[in-house]
Amino acid sequence: MSISKSGKVYLVGAGPGDPGLVTLRAKECIENADVIVYDHLANPEMLSWAREDAEIIYAGKEPGEDQNLGQREINALLIEKAGEGKQVVRLKGGDPFVFGRGAEEAQAIAEAGIPFEVVPGITSAIAGAAYAGIPMTHRAHNSHVTFFTGHEDPAKSESAIDYAALAKLGGTQVMLMGVERLGSITSEMMKHGVRSDLPVALVRCATTGQQETLTGSLSDIAQKAVASDFKAPAVVIFGEVVALRDNLNWYEKRPLLGKRIVITRTRKQSSVLSNKLRALGAHVIELPTIRIEPPSDLREFAELVQDVHVYDWIVFTSANGVEAFFDIFFKLYDDAREIGGVRIAAIGPATAQRVKDFHLHVDLQPDEFVAEAVVREFKKQGSIENLRILLVRAEKARDTLPKELSALGAIVDEGFAYRTVPETRDTSGARRQLAEDGADLITFTSSSTVENFLALGLSWPQGMRIASIGPITSKTVRDQGLKVDVEARRHDINGLVQAIRELFTEKNAEKS
């Protein structure tokens, strides 16, 4: 096989689970990749950063399942794709060189004469402890840390774990991949002289909204794990530092910890809402139901943008409309002053902020983020008879605004800046995740997200409630025969997050 000089493999650490803990270099590699080969422990939401034309291959292995690809097959795949001149990202949970077989892959790639780069990631061995409030080191308790893997049978005579050495070393010891063998491992440790009352912690699904921590001693932690059905993936921390968790536990006190919340916005827009919910501890399932595409008649819209200086007002109804408008505008003009003396109205703070991002002033912004409020604000301005208004909006949006502005005597042109279409791709496996694990709440931020989610025909998880961004979206939910459990008082993302927080705070209060 002839090797292309431009092909390269990037062994990229995907971190412990929280996408906020991924390095900037890792994100850059994902964004530029032609091919991404990812593992089970790599958060699939990171795949949303990939190019739409990127080839995405799952090569993971879940506990108790046969591996889709063996290690030799994975090595061959990486070499083959890079040999075709492609930029290949091998996305591995945690750090590729910490118990991740990254070194074996690097050796195979090097032997094949393929250039490669290693992008370190934050290992769960450190992140799991930190998110559980357990410091790896502390001057009063220890001066060294030992990492070892429990992914073997400790009863085997050829066991690579030197339990006598572990007992002698002391300090903080962290085990990866060995929860299912915890009883045998703790028994071996005690046999070799580790004291039975040594504090131990298990941290499951570290750094995600599903994180759980179980604490005990060397003598009883295995029994506790069985009793609570504590399953992998988890890290195990042995040492005096575990006791510091009582005062340093910070992550698991977040108000939405453990709550599974579905986001139905577009991939591009979901990050803002997702990040705010994750910051409150939620486990976010990004399941986009709509995708933003150019309008059916882009030429017609471009002609309206070209003549924008003849209008008295532009009305933007969404941030998407603002982006689409200025994308065309700056292809036609190289000077913002070409917009002329037109005044600008915007529905909602996100839309207004997007206008301000282009260094333009918003002249009219209603307190309520609905079309009717815009009409009321225009009435306060005095007569708008014969004023020319360009309404920048989505195709098939409600016709309330153009009708009512026209009824006031304005000359209204509708500029269809974009259209929303159903999202058919599911690169992150969110639909399977929803079907298998369910969810506590689903968020709808527009009528189209409601309609398109229901059009997917997915089964509705038991107990999944609905959060709506505002009255128009809520009406669509009810028209579909569903109940709105909470509606944002302020009809924007911050208002929606606040409403969700209050909903679960009230529920928790009721339980207590």
Q: What is the rounded distance between the termini?
A: 66 Å
CATH class of the largest domain: Alpha Beta
Shape: elongated
The tally of strands reads: 20
What value does the Rg take, in angstroms? Answer: 27 Å
| Class of secondary structure makeup | alpha/beta
Ranges where pLDDT stays below 50 over 5 or more residues in a row are none
Mean pLDDT: 91
Question: How would you characterize the overall build of this protein?
Answer:
It is built from 18 helices and 20 strands. The chain folds into 4 domains: 8-122, Cobalt-precorrin-4 Transmethylase, domain 1; 126-253, Methyltransferase, Cobalt-precorrin-4 Transmethylase, Domain 2, CATH 3.30.950.10; 260-289 and 424-511, Rossmann fold; 293-422, Rossmann fold. With 512 residues, the chain is α/β, with parallel strands linked by helices. Helix content is 34%, strand content 20%. The termini are far apart. The chain is elongated. α2 (71-83) crosses α3 (102-111) and α16 packs parallel to α17 (471-479).
Descriptive terms for the model:
alpha/beta, 4 domains, Cobalt-precorrin-4 Transmethylase, domain 1, five-stranded parallel β-sheet, Rossmann fold, elongated
Quick overview:
This protein is an alpha/beta fold.
Question: What order do the helices and strands come in, and which of them pair?
Answer:
Elements: E1 8-13, H1 24-32, E2 35-38, E3 55-58, H2 71-83, E4 87-92, H3 102-111, E5 116-119, H4 124-131, E6 145-149, H5 163-169, E7 172-176, H6 182-191, E8 199-204, E9 212-217, H7 221-227, E10 234-238, H8 245-248, E11 260-263, H9 267-279, E12 283-286, E13 290-293, H10 298-306, E14 313-316, H11 319-332, E15 343-346, H12 349-357, H13 371-380, E16 388-394, H14 400-407, E17 411-422, H15 430-437, E18 441-444, H16 447-455, E19 465-468, H17 471-479, E20 486-487, H18 493-511
Parallel strand pairs: 1-4, 1-5, 2-3, 2-4, 6-7, 11-12, 11-18, 14-15, 14-16, 16-17, 18-19, 19-20
Antiparallel strand pairs: 7-10, 8-9, 8-10, 13-17
Helix pairs in contact: 2-3, 10-11, 11-12, 13-14, 16-17
